[in-house]
Amino acid sequence: MSDGMRTVRFVLVRPRDPNNIGAAARAMANFGFGELVVVDPYPPTWREAKSAVGAGAVMAAARCLSLDEALSGAELVLGACGGGRKFRRPVVELPALGDYLAARLGAGRLVVLFGSEKTGLTGAQLGRCHALLRIPTSPRTPSMNLGHAVAVAAYELVRPRRAAVLEPPLPPAPTEQLEVLVAQFLRAFAALGYGRGLPRPTMERRVRETLQRLGPRRKDAGLLLALLRRVNAGKSG
Fold first, then answer.
1. CA 64 to chain centre
2. Please, which contacts does 233-236 make with residues 24 or more away whose CB atoms are closer than 8 Å?
3. What is the mean pLDDT of residues 163-192?
4. What's the confidence (pLDDT) of residue 163?
5. pLDDT at 208 over 90
6. Are 39 and 12 in contact (CB under 8 A)?
7. 73 and 113 in contact (C-beta within 8 Å)?
8. φ, ψ at 89 (rounded to 5°)
9. How far, CA to CA in Å, does 74 sit from each of 61, 77, 112, 126, 219?
10. pLDDT(3) > 50
């Protein structure tokens, strides 16, 4: 999300502890984000955060706005929530965030809301969100530190989505090799007395259909042929 990093706004609603604000700013700086907004913070002065090590630029650029102002210009608004709450709104699990944004977010700004450390986001604040971002936590300890919550969300926003590495497909067994396989199977079945009483054309059809259905690769067919030839050589000897 290299482009998205420039259009993501982290919004802390009514944060209580300046140190948590600083920790959130530091987490944002760790992952390359710079737009921090604080809505209605508790005293003391929120800019006195002492835990924003290495995030001085984020704190210097941070703004204190109303919620309406914080959401201004947003194409998509997500409200962060813990794993222990239930809501009547669409919920995006944190590991699925990248795929969700790829399908829903264009070139506009993403706003991620984080609620107060004590109460989280209120119903009215959640009502301003298009969907909720659920951070999976243990039901025994569902509440998460504000700075930590910002950190895991920021990480998920920049985590590379790697396409599955697919090995080049092995070449399929050619028709001639399959026909040799059919003949070797029929020879082994006859030596073992398997399918006795069935007409040879019927057995041949069944074996051929089975091999076609399985679609063995050339290498697989070669292994089967080696085994069957060894079996048939032993039977004939």
1. 33
2. 235/188, 235/191, 235/192, 236/191
3. 79
4. 55
5. no
6. yes
7. no
8. -135, 160
9. 19, 7, 10, 15, 55
10. no
Return the HEC string of 128-154. CCCEEEEECCCCCCCCCCHHHHHHHHH
Q: Which residue has the tokens 């069935």?
A: 198
Domain ranges for the chain: 4-158, 175-236
Rounded Cα–Cα distance for residues 157 and 92 (Å)? 13
**Neighbouring residues of 9: CB distance < 8 A, sequence distance ≥ 6:** 35, 36, 37, 70, 74, 109, 110, 111, 112
Instruction: Give the DSSP per-residue string, 197-217.
Output: TS-HHHHHHHHHHHHHHH--B
Using alpha carbons, select from 37, 154, 142, 33 the residue that is nearest to residue 97: 154
Q: What is the CATH number of domain 4-158?
A: 3.40.1280.10
Per-residue pLDDT of 34-76, as tens digits, reads 999 999 988 766 666 666 677 888 988 999 999 999 998 888 8
Q: Could you give the CA distance from residue 79 to residue 225 in angstroms, rounded to a whole number?
A: 61
State both tokens at 105.
């977010």
Q: Which helix (H) or strand (E) holds 30?
A: helix 18-30
